[in-house]
Please model this.
Amino acid sequence: MLSNRFVRITIFMSFFILVIGSAVLADDGRINRAPYHFGGDTLFCNQEQGCTLLNMTGHDVAHWPQDMVATALASADQSEQRVKVDGDGQGTYGPMQLWAMPNKTEDGNSTLCLIGFDEWGKQNDMCFQVTQDWHYQQAPLPVSSPAIVDHSCDRWSVGDWVELIADHDKTGNINSINLTNHTVNFGKAESVAKCSEIEPGPN
Model:
């Protein structure tokens, strides 16, 4: 039977290897990660070679040399308009373009954007930053917008006397409230309206 000490050492070493491996993977020049998807094609960039697009088997499918990237970024800064890096690439599922964007960030970084296609023919894009000392950063993960909660039904209860804002002839007590659709059913005719489309009826 394995001793507790041996088990603890094994677990610690496995965790250490996992952390080191993750750090290496995250800093291998790879720009796109999920959810940026180009049919398995992956963009790698570094100061020596510029940007290279590899397919799922690791073969080059597109390349933008460093001097072309630098020229496009300088031109974008000067013209204050986006500039395409010379030469369209051919990704696995369609043409790929690399664009230099105008206006540096507050940190003085430049921005590049890749536009291409996935296996469903859907056009996707991602943008990433290039530091002043030519470190290509991974495309940041998109920030999800907070869910918008509709509170328009909160003020109403079954039995409230209401009328339709757009038609004051439609009045009645609320029979039911559908919180999923944000609607109310009211009056003897069982009119249905959005909770935001009604107001208290006259007493």
Observations:
- Helices lie at 4-26, 66-79.
- The first helix runs from residue 4 to 26.
- The radius of gyration is 28 Å.
